[in-house]
Design a protein that fits this description.
The protein is of the alpha/beta class. Helices cover 48% and strands 14% of the residues. The longest helix has 32 residues. One of its GO terms (molecular function) is sequence-specific DNA binding.
């Protein structure tokens, strides 16, 4: 049963209101607010009915005290016609609503019901926010390997600052996880985190996505649209795969990073914004700069703080942590009870190259849990679901067999040829392992005349 505390110096009114409410609520009355915090702590009301004039006490001061000590309690003000100004002030301080005396019983019940609904909704929202912050903050990040711990240490050092961050790493290494952790560990956590995948949005649409547009700015712009930068005001924007962005748009991003202003398409007015910019890429930006595909000035603006994420094959001590996390996750999803890998299967998994990194491991675990009827994963079962192109007899020693003083072109050719052979000609996985685009890999294949 919800609890109502009535605070009024008129005993008769308190008794009347208690009579109206006692069938639906647990009610307590108070005529002297001097010890109201002690009463609230003992009674734990959901709603307080508070008179604006309680003897010599000022209801506004009492409201401030309640909201300071117990911000989640909803307060409904009771007031006479002559105190409207005070009522407006009370609403600004945080009162849920107000009732004009003499209080009507039906109106009172409706207001209390709405206040309790609002309180429950607010509590649910706060609980959800805490769950999200726990999941996406550093507490929810998985990893204990030395290379990954260095990345977490960097987050701890810069979490309270607005410095621009550039996250580097292969596809699937968790760059988005680090971006979310940076946001939810920062003072900006209560504002928006806008995530934009620059590679997933066609270049001719990316500008309007980022900056928004005015009504009539172009054919089909039948209404105004707010861009992602503006939506991220006072929060964070995460520009994922920024290495795929066109040069013309890079110039506009540079302007935003430099002076924190944007101009929506079709507008001549610049808008001031306040955002933290986090960017990420799996490309070698220095190579893109040399080839004229990425602006050097933008690179230096983004690369204030760099966080490099190691591939999963360099975080072998973390594989067991991810396996446990994904098993728990997918056992719940599919109502299964798979307990883990036997020793032989786990050793095989640990030696796998994982060109798709954590994302590939997650997909593998989901596939195994969804389709397997066994409670323990053995080598035969793992081999059924692991990449059919993987040959465990091959290992990274191929990359160490090149002699010192070998010409650079020869090294490059051998590296590409060895990696292609490692993945049985799979260009996508070869490009991911070499951290180059498939288009560049295809160019190199033609250049070196591989079959």
């Amino acid at each position: 049963m919800n609890k109502i505390l009535i605070v009024d110096d008129e005993v008769a009114l308190c008794e009347a209101l208690e009579f109206v409410l006692e069938d639906e609520y647990e009610v307590q009355t108070l005529q002297n607010p001097s010890n109201i915090i002690r009463i609230i702590d003992a009674f734990s009301p959901d709603v307080v009915l508070l008179d604006l004039k309680i003897g010599e006490a000022n209801g506004i001061d009492v409201l401030k005290t309640i909201k300071k000590e117990n911000p989640n309690i909803e307060v409904i003000i009771m007031t006479a016609f002559g105190s409207i100004d005070s009522t407006v002030e009370a609403i600004k301080i945080g009162a849920f609503n107000y009732l004009i005396k003499p209080v009507k019983s039906e109106e009172l019940k409706v207001f209390i019901k709405k206040a309790i609904e609002y309180r429950n909704l607010n509590n649910s929202f706060n609980n959800l926010r805490m769950v999200i912050e726990d999941e996406y903050s550093i507490k929810g990040v998985i990893g204990r390997s030395n290379k990954f711990v260095k990345a977490l240490e960097t987050i701890h050092k810069i979490k309270d600052f607005d410095s621009t961050v550039l996250i580097l790493g292969e596809s699937g290494t968790g760059k988005d996880v680090i971006a979310k952790a940076l946001h939810f560990e920062s003072p900006r956590r209560s504002h928006n985190l806008e995530i934009v995948n620059c590679a997933a949005i066609p270049s001719n649409l990316l500008e309007s996505e980022l900056f928004g547009y005015e009504k009539g700015a172009f054919t089909g712009a039948d209404r105004k649209r707010i861009g992602r930068f503006e939506l991220a005001h006072q929060g964070t924007i995460f520009l994922d795969e920024i290495g795929e962005m066109d040069l013309s748009l890079q110039a506009k991003i540079l302007r935003v990073v430099e002076d924190m202003t944007i101009t929506p398409i079709g507008s001549e007015k610049r808008k001031q914004i306040n955002v933290r910019v986090i960017a990420a890429t799996n490309r070698d930006l220095n190579e893109l700069i040399k080839s004229g595909q990425f602006r050097e000035d933008l690179y230096y603006r983004l690369n204030v703080i760099a966080i490099s994420l190691p591939p999963l094959r360099e975080r072998k001590e973390d594989i067991s942590l991810f396996v446990k996390y994904f098993l728990d996750k997918f056992n719940k999803k599919f109502c299964k009870n798979i307990v883990g890998f036997d020793i032989e299967a786990y050793k095989h998994l640990e030696n796998y190259y994982f060109p798709g990194n954590i994302r590939e491991l997650e997909n593998l675990m989901e596939r195994i849990v969804a389709l397997s009827d066994q409670t323990t994963i053995d080598l035969k079962l793992l081999s059924n679901y692991l990449d059919a192109n993987y040959d465990s007899s091959k290992d990274n020693q191929n990359y160490l067999s090149m002699k010192v003083a070998t010409p650079l072109k020869t090294l490059e050719k051998l590296m590409i040829e060895s990696t292609l052979d490692y993945f049985n000609g799979n260009r996508g996985k070869t490009a991911a392992a070499l951290q180059i685009s498939e288009r560049k890999l295809l160019y190199k294949i033609k250049e070196y005349e591989f079959s």
